[in-house]
């Protein structure tokens, strides 16, 4: 027998299970007697060390999905109504709330949209990063200081040892975002959720932050769930893309397939909205209309009122996710064609 080939025991699968598996996730707000569903049947997977992007307009449910994964849905008025969120084989939705802080920060970390509102204005940067380490690891003060300096150096902070005593208001937006990333990766998490990490940053700083996230993934083998409305940002870093609209997944697949041949009219609209340097059109394209309010969709495709390709069936029946290729699915009756 070849010594490099391990024998398979009966029932043993060679397929490596995903790090994160979200299955049929549903989130509701309002009273239980009259709930409003804002996330409806969202499912996706993230493998260890991989990068997955979630894209969509404001109001599509991207951030609520990430908060549900972290167990941070404000209750009341919100709650996870159905589904599973399995991390390393453990359903986080079934864990006692007292156990969740042990996982947050240590195994799953999150970078929020606005670093200035996420950092404590009256604590030094060194103390805030050190506190993140102290919560999950038994270390001395000197060990935390040394670790904090290393983390600031990892995220490209100049003179990291001199920055420990600085406060958030003494940093630029890009520097504050670097501090947030340093805090997030302080305990070498297996999964990093980045919610619009480049919002409100200029193009140069955006590029630096994205390169930093690539570096974190490369050096720490951290999986990343990147949430963004910017398809260009997602294309630069992600391997797979999940397109959300009105709280549902309308398309998912590998980056190359979706960008070359998008299967859903909404995805095509998002791609047409991206500015191009060589485009000679006078006005940028915009998808007509707006995302419907939660709870207003009773039947049919949620995109039907804005879709240029709609047919009669779209208004009557909600399309499932049809397989369009080896690694691409789209919830569209028209794109599915004969399969529907």
Q: How would you describe the shape?
A: globular
Briefly note the structural class of the backbone.
Answer: alpha/beta
Helix content: 25-40%
- Beta-sheet strand percentage? 15-25%
Kindly state the number of beta strands: 12
Q: Identify the strand order in the major beta sheet.
A: 6-7-8-3-9-10-12-11
Protein model, in words:
It is a single chain. This protein has an eight-stranded mixed sheet, with helices on both faces. A hairpin with a 2-residue loop joins strand 4 (78-87) and strand 5. With 340 residues, the chain is α/β, with parallel strands linked by helices. It is globular. The chain has helices at residues 62-70, 100-103, 115-118, 125-136, 141-154, 160-163, 173-184, 203-220, 231-237, 255-260, 265-272, 312-316, 333-336; strands at residues 20-29, 36-46, 51-55, 78-87, 90-91, 108-111, 191-195, 223-228, 240-245, 248-254, 322-325, 328-330. The longest helix has 18 residues, at 203-220. Helix 4 (125-136) packs across helix 5 and helix 7 (173-184) runs parallel beside helix 8.
Topology diagram in text:
Blueprint: E1 20-29, E2 36-46, E3 51-55, H1 62-70, E4 78-87, E5 90-91, H2 100-103, E6 108-111, H3 115-118, H4 125-136, H5 141-154, H6 160-163, H7 173-184, E7 191-195, H8 203-220, E8 223-228, H9 231-237, E9 240-245, E10 248-254, H10 255-260, H11 265-272, H12 312-316, E11 322-325, E12 328-330, H13 333-336
Task: Output the keywords.
single chain; 340 residues; alpha/beta; 4-stranded antiparallel β-sheet; 13 helices; 12 strands; globular; disordered N terminus
